[in-house]
Amino acid sequence: MLQKNKIIFILLSFLIVSLGRVYASELPDFKDLSKRLRSSVVSITVERKLDKNSQNAQILEHLFRRGAPGNDDEYQAPAVAQGSGFVISSDGYILTNRHVVDEAKKVTVFMADRREYVAKIIGTDEGTDVAVLKIDADNLTAVKTGNSSDLEPGEWVLGIGAPFGFDHTVTAGIVSAKRRTLPGELYVPFIQTDVAINPGNSGGPLVDMKGQVVGINSQIFSRSGGFMGISFSIPIELATGVADQLKKNGQVRRGYLGVSYQDVDYKMAKSFGMREVNGALLTQISKDSPAEKGGLKEQDVILKVNGNTIERAADLPFLIGQTLPDEKVNLLIWRDGKSKSMSVKVGERPNSPEESEGGDADSSSNALGLQLQDLTEEQQKAVGDKGVLVISLENGPAAEAGIRRGDVILSVDREETGSVKEFEKIIASLKPGSDVPVMVQRARVGRRIFLISIPE
Predict the structure, then answer these.
(1) Is residue 354 part of a domain?
(2) Percentages (nearest 5) of helix, strand, coil residues in the chain
(3) Do residues 253 and 327 lie in contact, with contact meaning Cβ atoms separated by under 8 Å?
């Protein structure tokens, strides 16, 4: 019996060790990748000027100025920032983040072998937070670039950079999600990972298991200022496209339609007769814009751009922005209960996006819980259109849909509401129990469409 138990114990021990070896063999080995990329990743130090009156400048002055000769009134303390980057060509071009070198007085690049170079800023792009630097060096080892579209959630990736000035720090994690949109970021479908990213990592490469750079580590989501498990990287194919334009032209040109848009929710999709909940719902077409000239209309839903599905409305500016001005894009739209293909020639995006904003006249309250009044001529000029002003709300369908006091209602069920009487007439003609789209102009927001249920 003892002999039998001994044999069983030996077999179990062998099985456990074997399983451990199998598990270990499945874990990635990052050593070779780290060695291979070491000579291509750089640390960046940036000197900026700070106003002497600022608190930071006063602290720096105390540290740098103490006991030094000269006139205090002429002194401006240097502010030093740190970041990362990587070599994209053997003749000295380097890719990093715009925010790393923004307002730089001097940019210094440090190689892995401790060589130092003063870098020239070739160009920066605010829309994507990409910057291109150039150092006077030859025969550098450039990274190999991949394509972020090949990444899958759950896939291992590496981050390399200089967090808090600790150069060539390697961190690992997995791809958490793709095509993330962030507030204020129109042109970047971010890669989300759980790779540890901290101050100083910005501009460093995100690397796949083939040793290919698939992104630029750019931002983190944090409530503390430090890493909390959510990092965002700029897809490399987007960044290199921007870099090519910066090297060639010193600036980036983007396609432009001239529309305002919003997401399509489930109720809207159902009311429009759509089979899937996706797309960008057009809430405004700018006058004489490429969209207007191309035949797009308000309340069209753009479903695809050049065959790429618009999963969320935020996909639209990214896909259009990647198109060069004067090129045509093939659109699949949803209009009047059916899909339609059309081609639109895009324009060039202006430097500052145009936004439109939104009486003593007849007023009325109605079954929607709205109290309305006509717009004055002056208000119509400010809005740029006819409509009725919401002066108060009660509990009811309009408030539940998201209408607010101060909104200007421009249309109901695609019919213009030039006056309170017209609004009441349209509402009276609608089928009780139906859900209808209502377009409003909202101050500092622009045009939005809400779905209101007509009371039975």
Answers:
(1) no
(2) 25, 35, 40
(3) no
Cα(380)–Cα(410) distance, integer angstroms: 11
Would residue 265 count as lying in a domain? yes
pTM (2 d.p.): 0.68
* End position of a domain, from candidates 213, 229, 249: 249
Q: Which of 74, 132, 137 lies closest to 100, judged by CA?
A: 132
Look-up: residue for tokens 């190999």? 144
Predicted pLDDT at 166 = 92
Q: Scan for tokens 């929607």, then name that residue.
A: 368
Q: Which structural domain range is residue 371 located in?
A: 363-453
C-alpha to C-alpha distance for 109 and 116, rounded to whole angstroms: 6
Q: Are the CB atoms for 181 and 314 separated by under 8 Å?
A: yes
Alpha-carbon 96 to chain mean position: 17
Closest-CA residue to 246 (of 41, 82, 46, 89): 89
**Span 325-347, pLDDT tens digits:** 999 999 999 999 999 999 999 99
Per mean pLDDT, which of 129-143, 421-435, 439-453 is the most reliable? 129-143
Half-sphere exposure of 192 (CA within 13 A, CB side): 12
The CA-based dihedral angle spanning residues 5, 6, 10, 15, taken in that order and rounded to the nearest 10 degrees: 0
Question: Could you report the per-residue pLDDT of 157-181, keeping only the tens digit for each?
Answer: 999 999 988 999 999 999 999 988 8
**Residue 338 vs residues 97, 291, 301: alpha-carbon distances, Å:** 43, 19, 10
End position of a domain, from candidates 297, 316, 348 = 348
Pick the closest to residue 228 from 193, 179, 185, 177 (CA basis).
Answer: 193
- Active centre residues (catalytic): 99, 129, 202
C-alpha to C-alpha distance for 442 and 439, rounded to whole angstroms: 10
Tokens 């630029």: give the residue: 216
Question: Lowest-pLDDT range, 267-271, 302-306, 344-348, 382-386?
Answer: 382-386
